[in-house]
Write a structure and sequence with these properties.
Helix 2 runs parallel beside helix 4 and helix 5 packs antiparallel against helix 6. The chain folds into 3 domains: about 100 residues, Butyryl-Coa Dehydrogenase, subunit A, domain 1; about 110 residues, Butyryl-CoA Dehydrogenase, subunit A, domain 2 (Beta Barrel), CATH 2.40.110; about 140 residues, Up-down Bundle (Butyryl-CoA Dehydrogenase, subunit A, domain 3). It has 12 helices and 8 strands. The protein is globular, with a radius of gyration of 22 Å. It is an alpha+beta fold and about 425 residues long. The protein is about 45% helix and about 10% strand. The strands form 2 sheets. The protein has a 4-stranded mixed β-sheet. It has a 4-stranded antiparallel β-sheet with strand order 2-3-7-6, with no helix packed on it.
């Protein structure tokens, strides 16, 4: 009897039936991880399926009522965090081809459900859930990273339209996306947090240019996006004018919940490949190696429990809060611990390999740092945890009430 079979015997009849439904669906539609040779070292991260495969899978997932499980009706099935837990347990052995939808379904669309208009929800939510349209999030700029509120991209009103000019950077998946949620400066007379507005942008609109960025691990998942006199209707505004920071904070919290609860970001390679690597290297009985593997296992389990708690809070109607930062930080630390341990066990063969299986450990070392930056740096997460969980004093914010036009931030700092 498997662990999930044992769980099924103690679950409510409803959850047991749901588990069987998920198990049947995944067996029919998703490739098992072993089928993708996850333990043969083709890559440290999941193999990314082609876009057509992802679209077909997401559509089938939605048709089966297994997409957006905890989204409120009528936008989603309106199920509980326990249903999400069951789904995650059954999906653990599969490589779900959903990479293109992590940003939209984990971050953007939940924010639209909360702050968007009825017309926006009617137009975009269902299509996103079915995988018909892909979304990105556009926040960071060359001069506004951890301090996103220092952004300088402009949106100027022109009747019933807005004209956008500026640049965004580190935009995940923009090259695949149909739409994005972007924040821009609409009132430089206000302090930096109170003069920002959120908009829906069509990536095919005139004046939008996407340039992929090559990362040190060889991938090009991030992009810089340029806006030159891009016109969008006021109907594409999310929330009130100059109140976009409230929407942005909600989206950042959704992002950290999605990353920390397993919906995206760097995923640990897991324990089994580490054990097999140690066995091949003849160091499985080494006490230090065994301690390191045990540490990774424990941290993986803890991260799973944090994710369950986070999803339960969201389902209970609580806005995503600091628990998302706890999960996000824990996930980043796990990715670093795992990659460090893997390359240490692999030794020289992890840097100059004859066996292609060993290449995964070098790729892990190159990929792990991104998890400490994407979705907010470790330092930002620690500040949030310190202030909102531990009750420590906030860091001084001497510029909080100063009009943005008077600040010397980002690329404005060089002005005379």
């Amino acid at each position: 009897m498997t662990a999930t079979d044992e769980l099924q015997t103690t679950e409510t009849p409803e959850l047991a039936e749901f588990r069987l439904k998920v198990r049947s669906f995944l067996a029919e539609h998703a490739p098992k991880r072993a089928a993708r040779q996850d333990d043969e070292g083709r890559a440290f991260e999941a193999t990314v399926a082609d876009l057509a495969t992802q679209k077909a899978f997401q559509s089938a997932l939605a048709d089966a009522g297994l997409a957006g499980l905890t989204w409120p009706r009528p936008w989603g099935p309106g199920l509980t965090s326990e249903h999400q837990r069951v789904f995650n347990e059954e999906a653990a052995g599969y490589e779900l081809p959903t990479t293109a939808y992590i940003i939209g379904l984990g971050m953007v669309i939940p924010t639209m459900i909360e702050f968007g208009t009825d017309d926006q929800r009617e137009r975009y939510v269902s299509k996103a859930l079915r995988g018909e349209e892909i979304w990105s999030q556009l926040f960071s700029e060359p001069g506004a990273g951890s301090d996103v509120a220092s952004l300088q991209m402009r949106a100027e009103r022109d009747g019933d339209e807005w004209i956008l000019n500026g640049q965004k950077v580190w935009t995940t998946g923009a090259q695949l996306s149909d739409f994005g949620a972007v924040i821009a400066r609409t009132n430089p007379e206000n302090p930096k947090h109170r003069g920002i507005t959120m908009f829906i942008i069509d990536f095919k609109a005139p004046g939008v240019e996407i340039r992929p960025l090559r990362q040190m691990n060889g991938a090009s998942g991030f992009n810089e996006v340029f806006f030159t006199d891009v016109r969008i209707p006021d109907a594409s505004r999310i929330g009130d004018v100059d109140d976009g920071w409230r929407c942005a904070v909600a989206m950042l919290m959704n992002e950290r919940v999605a990353i920390g609860s397993g919906g995206g970001g760097g995923r640990s390679v897991g324990v089994r490949p580490l054990v097999e690597l140690a066995r091949r290297r003849g160091v499985l009985d080494d006490a230090v190696v065994r301690q390191g593997i045990a540490d990774v296992y424990i941290r993986t389990k803890i991260l799973g429990y944090i994710g369950q708690r986070t999803r339960a809070a969201v389902k209970a109607g609580k806005a995503p809060g600091p628990e998302g930062s706890i999960a996000k930080l824990a996930g980043a630390l796990l990715a670093r611990r795992t990659s460090d341990l893997g390359i240490a066990i692999a030794g020289p063969g992890g840097q100059a390999w004859a066996d292609q299986r060993e290449s995964r450990w070098a790729l892990g070392v190159l990929s792990a740092p991104a998890s400490r930056i994407a979705g907010g740096t470790d330092e930002v997460q620690r500040n949030i945890i310190g202030e909102r969980v531990l009750g420590l004093p906030k860091e001084p914010q001497v510029d909080r009430d100063v009009p943005f036009k008077d600040l010397r931030v980002g690329t404005q700092s060089s002005r005379g």
